[in-house]
Amino acid sequence: MTKNHKLLSLTLILSLILGILIFAAGCGKSEPAPAEETAAPKSDVDLSDPKDVGDGDTQFYFVAVDRDEDETVYLVHTDEKTIGEALEDVDLIETEERDYGMYVAEVDGEEADYVSEGEYWALFVDGEYCSESIDSLKIDEDAVYLMRIEKAW
Fold it and tell me: Which of 30, 48, 118, 126, CA to CA, is 20 to 30 A from 18?
C-alpha cells in the first residue's frame, strides 16, 4: 500500500468514527416542541384552589386541561411511586397497555381520539414537554404535572 492509500484509509476511518460519535451523541435527545405547544409553564398555573384527591404521604399537583383550555387543578395524595400509577389510582386517567408501555386514552373523563383526529394526551412537567413514559416517571413533589390534548399530525 502506498503512503497516499494509507493516508486516505486513515482519513476515511477517522471520518467514519467521527460520524458515529456525532450520531450517538444525538440519540436519546428529543426535539423540543415549539414554544406555542409548551405554553404551560409552572408559573402560569393557578394552584391556589386545587381539588384534593387520594390518600397517601406523597403529594403533587396535577392539572388536566380540556379541549376548551379550561384547567382543573388537583392535589394528588398517594403512596404510589410513579405519576401513571398515582393518577390511575385516583381515577384521573384511563390507560391501555401498549407494546411501548402505558398509553393514556382518557384524562379527567375526556378521551383523545388518535385514530381519526391524531390526538394524544401530552404530558408536561413544569411547563416542559415530557417524553418519558408516564408509567416510569417518578413523582417529584416539587413539580407540577399537566396533561392536555395535542395533535400528532
Answer: 30
Return the C-alpha torsion angle 129, 83, 105, 71, nearest 10: -60
pLDDT digits (tens, 9 = 90+) for 91-145: 999 999 888 788 999 999 999 998 999 999 999 999 999 989 999 999 999 999 9
What confidence tens digit (pLDDT) does each residue in 7-49 have? 666 665 756 565 555 555 544 444 544 544 444 445 588 999 9
For strand 71-78 and strand 58-65, is the pairing parallel, antiparallel, or unpaired? antiparallel
Grid cell in block for residue 145: 404535572
Cross-strand pairs, 97: 102
Residue ranges and CATH numbers for the domains of the chain are 40-151 (2.170.130.30)
E-assigned strand segments in the chain: 51-54, 58-65, 71-78, 93-98, 101-107, 110-111, 119-125, 128-129, 144-151
Distance, CA of 48 to CA of 87 (rounded, Å): 20
Grid cell for residue 3: 503512503
